[in-house]
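Support case: user asked for a sample of complex input and structure output to validate their parser. Sending the pair below.
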Amino acid sequence: MDKLSFQNPLFTTYVIAASVMILKAVTMSWLTVVRMMQVRGGFRSPEDIKKTVLNPNPSAEQLAPNEYVDRIRRIQLNDLENLPFFLVSGFLFILTEPSLMLAQWLLYGYVISRLLHFAAYFTARTHDTRATLWTVGSLILIFMCCWTLLVALWQ
Amino acid sequence: MDKLSFQNPLFTTYVIAASVMILKAVTMSWLTVVRMMQVRGGFRSPEDIKKTVLNPNPSAEQLAPNEYVDRIRRIQLNDLENLPFFLVSGFLFILTEPSLMLAQWLLYGYVISRLLHFAAYFTARTHDTRATLWTVGSLILIFMCCWTLLVALWQ
Amino acid sequence: MDKLSFQNPLFTTYVIAASVMILKAVTMSWLTVVRMMQVRGGFRSPEDIKKTVLNPNPSAEQLAPNEYVDRIRRIQLNDLENLPFFLVSGFLFILTEPSLMLAQWLLYGYVISRLLHFAAYFTARTHDTRATLWTVGSLILIFMCCWTLLVALWQ
């Protein structure tokens, strides 16, 4: 069967996991926008304090760092450090044709670990909670990547 | 037909869009280099103010933030927040075999929105202009991602 | 032959290069964790100075920038600016079916350039050394991307 067919359950498992993660990542950008609008600040470019329709009462303070906005930026940076590598590693992993159950555990497990990591970071849980959830995702990523590498080297 | 064949117009549409976006992203790195050379500053590591062939007259001020360089870094960070997800989402989207016209509108539309976003950011247009152009690209990305997810779920 | 088969030496060349690069990128995250544990600092979120099992003696200084930790963060940011684009560009490049020797030179050459770049950055070599190694990788990436674009345009 065509490995990249939407009739292939391994491939659709990957597509579902990848799509949810991409939507999650894009949501961080929109959440940053929402929070910048709420506090009318957390901007970063000098031209952002020009008077415009969206910013009718500009002030220099709008360029100051804003923790309410920066929290989302940190979450987003964490996504950038993790998701692009998951997206490629997950794709190559399902091309090794592992068992469907293993693929579902790893790919959906990764998605769940990242959504819980977001919830913990968003609500400012302790570093230990956040780190534990990040570790689960990171170990899944390392496992998939090593598995794929070994399959490639042993062929 | 092989979905990943360069005879498949859906695939070549993706390849053209993806290649232009990757070249765009790489250009940001080179533009940062060019600007750092122009102002002889905007460096970030302590060892960057050692005397070398490329930096014959080092000074501690070279490590200070430099808006002329940092503008490109902000543009590049915006690329990192968007392009990797577009590259994966666009790939999965054309694998769902949409109509060629739809794929061309969305993929080339995304490319154009990002090039205009760069032009607006580079020339320091208002936040409203930049935000509008970013929104176009983001909505295209969300549309492709939801489309792909629905195809995967409905199979 | 199936382009995405692990019997296809072009594909396995890509898989090996991609897997090594992903593991390299993930290692940066772990290295950041190790250094944060060593210096008990370099944290970034207000909640990171709550008393927990992993941080039994918290203090406000733990949130101050820490060069020992920030060096790894800069290396990681450099990865984020380069690796996701290599991962996609390398994949599309091997789909153009170049000669195996060319693919091995470019893909493995890229991997070696990035590992040396890491070694130079990690040990704080001069900017010139680091920049030279980065340039090698960047030129390989640009070459692969232009090659792929031309193949797509000429079909």
